[in-house]
Amino acid sequence: MVGGKSNSWFKTWWRWCRKDDYIFNIFKRNGYITSLAVNVCQDLIRDYVGNSKDFHVDYESITWACHPEYDLDGQWDDFYGPYGKHPRCIDGKYVHTYLFDYVKDFVEKHDKKPFPYVKFLSLTEGHEGTMEIVGLMDHELRELLVYLTSSQLKQPPMIFLLSDHGLHYGSMFAQTIAGKMEARLPLLLPIIPTKYLSQSSKQILTENQNRFATHRDFYWTLYNIATNQQDKLLTRHDVRRSSLFNKLPAERDCISEGIPKYLCACSDDGVNFNPELLLRKID
Known about the structure:
Low-confidence stretches: 1-15, 277-283
Largest sheet: 3 strands, parallel
Order of helices and strands: HEHEHEEHEHEHHEHHHH
Radius of gyration: 20 Å
Mean pLDDT: 83
Helix content: 25-40%
Distance between the termini: 58 Å
Number of helices: 11
Strand content: 5-15%
Strand order of the largest sheet: 2-1-5
Number of strands: 7
C-alpha cells in the first residue's frame, strides 16, 4: 500500500472481529466469490479488522485510488482528495465512474459462472460540505441499477444501498434538531429480486420498514443470505441474531441495542424519534 491517509488510530480500538465472524469469510465458506472495491487510498480491511492472512477477499481494488491526481499523496483537505468539494477525477474521468464500470464488469463476468458472488463497494462522495459531489453520481448510478436489475442477468443480485451514518457536514447537523436527526439516521435501501423471497419473507421485510433496525441486524441479514437461512426461524440456542428477515421488536431502543447516546436518534438531547414507541404510548 502506497500513499494515502490512514485514520486507523481511532478505528481499531474496538476491534473484535474473529476470522470465523468476518462476513467475507462466511460468504467464502459457503461457496461465494468475494470482492471489495473502494475509492480511497486506504486498506479498509487492515484498518478495521487487522493485517492478517485470515482477513481478505478474492478480488480487492484499492491501489488505483492512490493515483496522485486524485489522492494527492494523502494530502486530503476540504477542497481536494476523497473528501474535497472539487470534482474528483483521474485523467478526465470521474472517480465514481471507474468504480461503477468495475462493478458492471465484475458482475457481467461472474454472472456467467456457476458460483454466487458478493461485492462490497464503498463510496465517499457524500463526505463533503456542499453536497454537490454526490449529485454527480445520479445518472451513472441509475444506469448501473438499471443494469443490475435487468432481466439479462442469470443471477440478478440482491442490492443493498446503505451508509454508516446520515449526512453530518456543516453547522446545521450539530446545531439543529433536524440536523441531528439526519446525522443519526443512516440509509438502508434494499433491492431484492422476488425470486429470492418467500411470501413470509416479503411480509416480514415490509413490516420491518417501520422498525428500529441497526447495522448489527444488517450483518445478520448478510449472514442469513450467505448461509441460505433467510426463512429459517431463530431458535433458543441459535448462533444467529435478529436480521431483517426476522420480525424486529417494536419496543427496541438505543440502550437495548447498545447504541451510544451521541449516535442515538431517540436520545434526550433534543432529538425525539421512535414512532413505534410514540404510538404505543398514545394508545
